[in-house]
From TrEMBL, chains A, B:
Protein family per UniProt: In the C-terminal section; belongs to the class-I pyridoxal-phosphate-dependent aminotransferase family.
UniProt organism field: Yoonia ponticola
PROSITE patterns: HTH_GNTR
Protein name (database record): GntR family transcriptional regulator/MocR family aminotransferase
Keywords: Aminotransferase, DNA-binding, Pyridoxal phosphate, Transcription, Transcription regulation, Transferase
Keyword Transcription regulation (UniProt): yes
PANTHER family: HTH-TYPE TRANSCRIPTIONAL REGULATORY PROTEIN GABR (PTHR46577:SF1)
Length: 492, 492
């Protein structure tokens, strides 16, 4: 029985080549049970006329479908749904009609926050995206990334891509992290001291799980990375927050009884302050005197384009007290979800066992692609290209901030990708962000960075990592105008 | 100053094209500080002679290095290390000389097991790999996987690949799971009821964290998946194990006070038993009567080549009590690390928040690649190809087991990819596995699957998912010979 030509139509919104869309249309029809085994498809000529495409495109799509055994070709009689084509399920799909479960009771551990920061998925369509931590398509080296991915997808790397590594990592990636990245931070480490993680987020989470429990005390910076505070809150440890100054975390303020200190010495998050060498040494001395461990989140160390980067805390550590967190999210892209932990072997062994239980390992295909990208030198070329662009944008944004009289609360003297801003005390930057969004400007309200129940509402962060230099001045002007209008109104 | 030609050599063991290896050799020398800015490289002709490669290969490598700003070209004067080339770190790399940390105290939660099952990373080099859960390169459709990866790596999908999704997933993958995979299991679900996970391992881990605590009781099958037992032990819940029979988990034996039951109805792990429909209904009724939840690990449902698959528990669930775990590890490859959870929205919301805190999201590039692979019908074609091969191998292995008089302890009547075997009571299959390994045969000892302190030592699992049909008979013969030799010896 021939399938009616009328049942075929190409979705105008679908993506992919015409050939791929035709393949998809036919395969979907078979999988959904609309076309049955043995039914004849319209000839390639009729189908081409009907869809308004070339006949060769239809023929190529049919040929592919034959190769995949969706269709069979019977010479001049045409194409038929294959006798081996998949059958749709015999039992009807159905949704649970009701629920007899008391979910408020059934959930043993609550993790969902009462309030979630709104993060537009379509940030790239905004004209002035002062958004933090996303990748700028004009800077990323997609061509070489694709080439490295192709290499990692090759037959030669089949095992590296497909294998269940259990608790292991790609030895090639470990080698290039040890050889090429860590030496630039003054760190020598062997493979037993390195663990690949699902980004810095996962590295911080693993570290908190291994080192903390209800009897241990963690000390964080205030303000600090909101996701870290969430991680530590879930770990149910005791938690202290120490206010940072223009040099980052002051070691003298770390409270007695602290077991683990989380710090961001390269670029304090979110103030971007860089901790000076004398303070780094004082922090290490205090760690030894008070017997605490230090978790060094060295994010964005690569983006040090105004001065040469300081040596990492880890490189100054004589006593094995520093656990180092690195990430490819800022230097490559966050959707990669790759970072790494460097620490003493007994710690890494525990973090590795926990990671294996939680997720086994980051995908081999991603690990191998990054290994190639590093080994061929593309990574370093990319970091230099990004640094040059950020430096240019930084000059523009610094000037625009002066021109419009905005107040900077913190800004990296070494580099970074963002500036920490302060509005008048009565301004709520959540309202500011909502207003600006309607004008195509994205900024990040600052309250979530602070510890305590009554965080200041008048801070915000603007990043220059995803906005073209030519757009910056106009964007800053719009921020200044919105602030001026809000300041003129009395507090509601 | 020219760089001496003698400092260049190609590592004979290195991988990649000649051109890539030359690029890597030069980039590494610059990054390690051996070649400094402004130094002249040997001419392409001299380098080609020295390395024994064609001149055009060297020229292409140099051109790439110029594009990445490692080298600069000065016309007829040749190639020089660029003035913008990266500088090696100024501070010397060093390793912590000693440790003053008491790691036995510093580690708050221990996860590393005392004993780790040895899993050879080089399993593919064994002649008789009856290994479970790895991908057979002769069955996997690498060409189409590469094409889908290429599409996901394209400019059009740049945001899907690179973006930080925070707690979201690729909407395209969610759509194809909902439209194309779940209907075949009789399940209708909307996007709020689906979460992408890092494989089934991560899905089970997230579920345990959300549903269990020290006051809750989980019931598992005995024997069962060892990694699940590890997850539940770490969750510090109360844990019961119920012995399975030839139809899987007997609902009547589930102890009172159970909050969550973990079960593998499609192919019980490791016995491969399929739970009959009447027992599925009895299990659901008991869940309603006793007010417990069911976690259905539906791994390998695709590998149902002997009979049509049974409807999933989830599809029979009228009361919203079943949480469904699916995985692409067996149908695509385990190194992909992609699976999914399907459950009531309140549960998925918590699992999503926890996943965001632990790792944010599985990499966008992997999610999008699978979405294309599904949408173009390659996934279904692959599953059919695998099913045909497994069916052929199953016939061979069943016959070989009869021919050599081995004892089957459990074998799927629907399909699956492994057979659960039993040796004489005094045989230790850890010893058996070690002996067989020296003969190129890989099997999996069975003790780790059992609950309790004194697990039986005489079970083992043999899989036919990664071994060619032509090798099976010989491999089974070697197992039988080793068993016979061990049985002849008195217990040591």
């Amino acid at each position: 029985m021939p399938i009616s030509i009328e049942t075929f139509f190409l979705d105008a919104d679908a993506e992919g080549t015409l050939q791929a869309r035709i393949q998809q249309m036919v395969a979907q029809g078979i999988l959904a049970g609309r076309f049955s085994r043995g039914e004849r498809l319209p000839s390639s000529r009729r189908m081409a006329d009907h869809l308004g495409v070339s006949r060769i495109t239809v023929t190529l799509a049919y040929t592919e479908l034959v190769a995949d055994d969706y269709l069979s070709s019977k010479g001049r009689s045409g194409y038929f749904v294959s006798e081996n084509a998949p059958e749709p399920p015999a039992f009807p799909a159905q949704q649970a009609s009701k629920s007899t479960v008391d979910w408020a009771r059934a959930i043993a551990h609550k993790h969902a926050p009462a309030f979630v920061m709104e993060r537009p998925a379509d940030w790239a369509s905004y004209k002035y995206p002062f958004i933090y931590g996303q990748t700028d398509p004009t800077l990323f080296d997609n061509a070489n990334w694709r080439l490295c991915a192709m290499q990692a997808l090759g037959k030669r790397d089949f095992n590296a891509m497909t294998s269940d590594y259990y608790d292991r990592d790609d030895p090639k990636l470990i080698e290039f992290i040890a050889r090429q990245i860590l030496p630039r931070r003054g760190i020598l480490a062997n493979p037993q001291e390195i663990l690949v993680t699902m980004g810095a987020q996962n590295a911080l989470w693993l570290t908190a799980q291994v080192l903390l429990n209800a009897r241990r005390r963690a000390t964080i910076e205030d303000p600090s990375y909101p996701a870290l505070r969430t991680i530590l809150t879930h770990s149910s440890c005791q938690l202290s927050a120490v206010a940072v100054d223009k040099d980052g975390l002051p070691p003298a303020d770390i409270p007695d009884g602290t077991d683990v200190v989380f710090t961001t010495p390269s670029h304090q998050c979110p103030t971007a302050a860089t901790m000076p060498l004398h303070r780094r040494k004082a922090l290490l001395k205090k760690a030894e005197d008070d017997n605490f461990l230090i978790v060094e989140d060295d994010y964005e160390f690569e983006m040090s384009f105004l001065k040469a980067p300081s040596p990492s805390l880890k490189s100054l550590d004589q006593n094995g007290r520093v656990i180092y967190v690195g990430s490819f999210s800022k230097s490559l892209f966050p959707g990669l979800r790759l970072g790494y932990l460097v620490g003493p072997a007994p710690f890494i062994r525990e973090a590795r066992a926990l990671r294996a239980s939680v997720l086994r390992h980051p995908p081999g295909q991603m690990q191998r692609t990054v290994a190639y990208y590093l080994s061929l030198g593309h990574y370093d070329a990319l970091v230099r290209r990004m640094s040059r662009a950020y430096k240019e944008r930084r000059i523009v944004i610094d000037q625009a901030i002066i021109d419009h009289g905005l107040t900077v609360a913190g800004r990296g003297t070494f580099g970074g990708s963002s500036i920490w801003m302060q509005a008048a005390p009565h301004i709520n930057t959540n309202d500011l962000a909502a207003q600006l969004r309607t004008k195509g400007v994205l900024i990040e309200p600052g309250a979530a960075f602070f510890s305590g129940d009554d965080p200041p509402q008048n801070f915000f962060r603007i990043a220059y990592s995803s906005i073209a230099a030519s757009r910056i001045a106009d964007g800053i002007r719009l921020i200044a105008e919105a602030l001026k209008a809000m300041e003129a109104r009395p507090k509601s």
